[in-house]
Amino acid sequence: MKCRIFVGVFVLVSIVIGQLDGRAVRVRRQDISFKTYEQEEYKSFTDRMKPPKRGSSQSSVANTGSQTIINQHGIQQQTSGGSQSSNLADDGSSGQLSAANTQQQTMQSGNSFQSQNSGQSQSANFGKDHQILSNANTNTNEQRENGNVLQQTSGGAGTSVVDKHGSQSSQAQTNSETVDEADRKGSKSTGSSQSLQIGNDGSASGANSNTGAETIVLADGTVINKSFSSSSSFQSSGNVKAGASANSFSSAG
Questions:
Q1: Which of 40, 76, 164, 189 has the CA that lies 20 to 30 A from 26?
Q2: Minimal CA–CA distance to 118: which of 142, 98, 97, 144?
Q3: What is the torsion angle, in degrees rounded to the nearest 10, for the CA atoms of residue 54, residue 55, residue 56 and residue 57?
Q4: What's the CA gap between 93 and 216, in Å, rounded?
Q5: Full domain range(s) for residue 58
């Protein structure tokens, strides 16, 4: 029975191929091979429609370090660390890059102490029709001497994007400071931000803002408060242009 079925399939294949070519075609058994489902390279229609995989390469590295110095001036300690990573297509059409590092330093001598910390990071992501860049940073500083204390912090971040629609960029920055001394105590903070968008059609828009506040307490109990803010924006598209701005300031004490 199995032999008859195979002969029937063989004859059918010969007839179909002969009709397609318009001439007789002789097909030998060894010319025909079959794969089981498990042997198929693609298992579904979705897999068949996927583009072939392109090669890529990845790499990463990290490092740390520390140092301690003791001498007649006091004790100084330093630590640092960094890391980098990349993921790039072999043909250079796309990729991701990133890097980060940190630093810490402390110094102590007699009645004085100082500590500084900082960190930075950068990243890039690019492809056929886009490019994205970003960065961020933080910093802290603390000083103590004879009962007086000064603390400062700052941070910032920025992003830039270029794609088929145009380009966009934004940045932001913050700062703060506190003071604790015998004759005065106080704090102040500031912040700023900027953004810009440019379209491939020539349109553009942007905005800026700044804020700040300060409080001071004198030895006699007098309190002084100050604050300010400002902002501006613009928009341009063809022959239409518009802009606006605002400012404020206040002081009490």
A1: 40
A2: 142
A3: 180
A4: 56
A5: 52-252
